[in-house]
Amino acid sequence: MSFTIFRKRQWKVFAMLLLSVGCSDFGDTNDNPNASRVPVPFALLTEAITGVPSTEAGRSLRGGIAGIQTVGAPEPMLYVQYWSESQYPEDSQYSTTFALWDNYYAVSLQDLQSIIDFNTNEETKLQMSQFASNNNQLAVARILKAYLFWVVTDRWGDVPYTDALKKNTQPAYTPQQQIYSDLFKELREAGDQFDNGSMLGGDILFHEDAAKWKKFTNSLRMLMALRISNVDPGTAKTEFLSALNDDDGHIIDNSDNAFVAFLDDDKLRNPLHVLFDGRDDYGASDVLVNTLKDLNDPRVTVFVDPTESDEYIGLPYGLQRDMLIDWTNENEYSRPGSAIRETTSRGYILTASQILFAKAEAALLNWTTDDAADLYYAAIQASWNQQGVFDQDAFEEYTTQDAVEFTGTEEEKLSKIGTQRWIALYPNGTEAWFEWRRTGYPNLQPTPYAVNASKQIPRRYAYPNVEATLNKLNYQEASGRITGGDTHDSHVWWDVQ
């Protein structure tokens, strides 16, 4: 059986296997004494990575590290001006205030917590070891759980963490600084927890390669450290150097990139494909297209589709609906590139270019003695290689442009790192939004037709609207800690721009 066929069958079977995990509490009436009393962990792992296949036609994978709420989330892509809306511009005008977190807590995080619980419970850990080493199952689950909580806290700020996933219907919100501290601990311990035993199946991220999991772990630690560099530079530097110097290494080559290889299957396809399946709601933003064209950047051929007249034309960002209709009636515009939204297009979670840009920034901050320029150019080259557009002569011409060459003041160099990072992260709008909030680069301007109170690009999501009634006291306490209150204009702890 080919690997592709095996992987497709593996994806399709994991959701059905999940049905065996839970049952109603009718005592031992329906207990089969010969049946397993533990879940099938590889099904839980696959679902935590991908999210849940929708039961409705034309819907995306939800939750997960590669679902529509995380890497493929369209709203952050609008906030960082990768895309423009072509028909209904409300999100481009920042009308969305709150976002739900159900698919994180109730599905992906709960799946990972189940793996952790069953591998630590003395009554079930032996039975769980039939699937893989207990330590290796725990390590992988803790790493992905930390990654998902990192995304969740950077979306909302203070969130249920310490009290979460404990069958507590009214969990307290943990301050974000405390969450970061614990995530660093979790990743350090998880990276050291791997043993020489077997790895867990269902791993569609690194295919049971422990060495790649360890590199991924250290890479996450480095990015997390840089995220808090403006608000806690001492901890940031310590954690960054600890991860950088770890003997297990980190991602510096595209062969170690973390990505999901989606399938040519209606329920298991790239979530971005769903957004364009029978719909035409998004165009490539003029901000992105003009940036790529001004730099003569060959990635434009991957990131953007040409128009019928074989031109790359961006759709103006943030127009009001009547203005938008008038403009689109009179003009051609490019759609986001087919290469990044095909059914089988890869969903990148973390790449070599991200880590190389992080190392370049750390060198510029004098955290290391590395050459920031070398790392910066290596990061751009890694991105070009990732997208299949690298040519040595074109690269040399590109990197000697005034807007790209690593010259100028420290602030100008940070700006160049930020702009090139923004380009390389495409189409991971979620991570680009987080990094833009941290650095202020590139210098994105809000739409002049913004409808939110600040008239600025949103800085977070407001808490799910049901929290004010279902978890009222804890919601009120957490909201009271936010300067400006629970709005999408308020800033999270590390966002001091």
TrEMBL record:
Which PROSITE patterns does the protein's record reference?
Answer: PROKAR_LIPOPROTEIN
Keywords attached to this entry: Lipoprotein, Signal
Source organism superkingdom: Bacteria
Give yes or no: UniProt keyword Lipoprotein.
yes
Q: Which region is the signal sequence?
A: 1-27
Q: Indicate whether Lipoprotein appears among the record's keywords.
A: yes
Please provide an example of a Pfam family that matches this protein in its UniProt record: SusD-like_2
Provide the protein name. Answer: Susd and RagB outer membrane lipoprotein
Q: Name its species.
A: Ohtaekwangia koreensis
